[in-house]
Amino acid sequence: METLETYLDRKHRELELLNGCLLRLSPLKRPASVAEVIERKFHVAAALKAEHALHDWAHTETDWAHAGRPRAGPFRFSYDYQRADLRVSGPSFYEPGCAAHDTLYTSSGMGAISALLLASVHLMSAANIMVLPGTYGETLELIEGYARHLRLIPLKGSRDEMMLPAAYPSVLLLDSCTSIAAFEAVLGCTRAEFELVVFDTTCFSNGSGRIRRVVNWARRRRLPIVLVRSHTKLDSLGVEYGRLGSAVFIPGARPEWLTQLAAETRNAVRLLGNAALPAHFPPYVGTRAYRALTNKRVAAILRNSRRAARIFGATLPCSFDQLHVAHGLYVTLSSKRTLDEQQARQIAADMSRDLSKSGLPLRHAGSFGFDFAATEWFHDAISDRYAVRIAVPDLPTALWDEVAHAVSRWWSAHEGRETSGGMHQTPATAS
């Protein structure tokens, strides 16, 4: 368990890290409450972004002033018109061990995977793309609507499926949102013959052991692998510093093939106008303090998610089911009524409004990894039902338990007005 005092000490260290990146340091004292933590972190992050804009005023979209290489903390940038040729030097967001052939930064995580999959047509005019249960819905929408050279093959998640011979080259899409059983089945696959592995790591901590396991699995089988990621989520200490994504290319048996894929992906980014903005690189990345604080944040989220599983399992037992998603960053509550997207969105907004009025750190926000709990609608692709997602924060243990019990009471009361309620829960399993 983490006490309020220990939590406030940890958050003070996060504030010190952010504040230390300012050219003109702000007066800083230890926060006295969770509400103060949330407010001050966003204020310091805003000051960092404003200071960057003032300092690099001459580095416009066309970089007409050529006043030297722009920078953001340890990151250095070079580019010409519209950042179409953007080059970035600086630390990796990932821990050592993910040795990259090339790293390409984009304006978002979806921007990275979109450019990669669209560019792959130049190397694979027709291919199967194997997807596992729980794969991110927008990625599937992208493949079906725009990457027509990739034939979508939904898998149930068994190891044997992945070892069957195929008439076309095969791409494996591995997502941190997939089920833990399917994720482990991939790592137990010893005879896989994939042209390429695409691994969306967004919902895992950038230091996750699961990322290392997948990279090592691909290396042992000499499979080329590309790590795609949104850095807007877990990599910015909960302040959504800016929209940023990346594709990290790690070679297999044919490094020249991956070099060509990286070049085609870079060209796709240029043509789509999808290059990253230098101002969106968090300047506090790359230090030991950043790595340690990020790991502690995610560990606290996972602990709280496991506690939510126990609380909701005991207090909302009707139609209880466990969706064993690999990342474990959120839980979902589902009604016995059939909800559409708008109804699920409204329930999330109503619950957030009511509980935040009572002083609890719960907000209606469509993301995760904050210092507050965030509610939003959620579409469960497996059951094809809409539900309410609660993204678990790294709050002090006792306070999070209070929030979880309050959610349970609210849900039971409001479900009781319509019909008896149910809950689907996504337990914390990631590391």
Overall mean pLDDT? 88
Bin the helical content. Answer: 25-40%
Task: Give the overall silhouette.
Answer: globular
Count every helix, treating DSSP H or I runs of 4 or more residues as helices: 10
Quick one: how many beta strands? 16
- Low-confidence region ranges: 419-428
Q: Major beta sheet, specifics? A: 7 strands, mixed
Please identify the structural class as seen in this structure. alpha/beta
Care to describe what's here?
This protein is an alpha/beta fold and 431 residues long. The protein has three domains: 4-55, no CATH class; 71-280, Type I PLP-dependent aspartate aminotransferase-like (Major domain) (Aspartate Aminotransferase, domain 2), CATH 3.40.640; 300-425, Aspartate Aminotransferase, domain 1 (Alpha-Beta Complex), CATH 3.90.1150. It has ten helices and 16 strands. The chain has helices at 4-19, 34-55, 109-119, 137-146, 180-187, 209-220, 255-272, 288-315, 341-357, 397-418; strands spanning 71-72, 75-78, 87-89, 102-106, 127-131, 150-154, 170-175, 196-200, 225-230, 245-250, 321-322, 330-333, 362-364, 373-380, 385-391, 424-425. The strands form four sheets. The chain has a seven-stranded mixed sheet, sandwiched between helices. β5, α4 (137-146) and β6 form a beta-alpha-beta unit. It is globular and about 60 Å long. It starts with a helix and ends in a 6-residue tail after the last strand.
